Predict the 3D structure of the following.
Amino acid sequence: MSRIPAIFIAVTRNWIRSRSGLFFTIFFPLMLLVVFGLVFSGGSAGNYSIQIQNRDLTPSGNPSTLSLAFIGALNQTKALGISSISPSIDPRTYAQSNYNFFGSQSSRILVIPEGFQASLLNGTTKTRLIVTSGTLSFLVKNFSQFIPPSQKQGIETGIAALNSTAAAFPGGNVSLLYYSDPSDSGGQIVKQIVSTVANSFNYRLVGATPIVTFSDQSLIVKRLSSVDYYVPGLIGAFVMTNGIIGLTSVATEFKRRGVLKRLSATPLSRFEWIVGNVLSQTVLAVALTVVMILAGRLIFGVTTTIDFYAAIILFAGAVLFAGIGMLLAGLVKDPEAANGLGNAIAFPMMFLSGSFWPLDIMPSYLQTVARALPLFYFSDGLRASMVTGNTSIALSDFAVIGVLAVAFILLGSLVTSWREK
């Protein structure tokens, strides 16, 4: 047992001296965290861009009051990044002129037509007249026994006058023009946002108040950003790659250089060799986790942290993937072949296990595949303990990881050739 620290120091020192190992173990995950954070953290300019062409101008050439109010309502959603284009140009020509190799830079254009304000005022007035007439008719029909005859006759006269005025009053229907690229996945989302705002704008103009409303209740007490959800997945993915790819490469390289042959001639046991490697992977996993969390806090203000459950899951995961790495190193002697096999196992697992995106967006058969991968339980357990605070899920995932860790460590020790024949 006293020789385990020596193995740990030797393996860790070999990793530190490797520039590529240092890059792919620490700096590459850090770069990926920054990229994910910049892409998914959002910004003040809105998530979806849209250009608005306002053709409803006053005689002096200024936008009408109601058209500006409608644009303001769109801006209040905080979901749209709004810019304007000149009312004198053709939207199709404008979109085509801005098309380049990467697609159209003006793929979403909303046109507010001429007469927008006048049509809204006419339509709103006529709607109010019809609603008032209908309300009075409902009262007379259902509560006539409570209305004195003289008042009832006056109400009926008023209803007739309202109906007559409404029939003679010019109506107003406004048709907003929306141009979008069919290949634009966000185009329909923007259309739904505009449609929802337009309906709400209609209700406000006629003085209607919503009857059915929503009250949001958060199931998570902590206030979290989107980057908080990616940190555990990134940690899980690269602890896995360090164990499978990194340890497999190091162990097979030691075997090729004859290091293992020389070690087998010493009092060092196979158990001490394996434990030393596992401890090295555990320290690397802790170092990676600390760096990722510190970088997330400094750059994006994430609030995720390591608690007791995250610590035991991290340890079990490091042991699990170190065991897989030892197993592969014991099965394959050639370093290049071992490296290729490690990549063939690690990278599909990284993208299929839900580390980078929710399983819900994947087809059902891929979700089944994901739940058969050890990385799914590792990333899910880290996320449950570090983000949502769901200890029951964290412990359940830890149980799966723990069983797999013991199994792969035993298999790795069995296939590790220690005494040369």
Notes: The longest strand covers residues 48-54. The two ends are 25 Å apart (CA to CA).
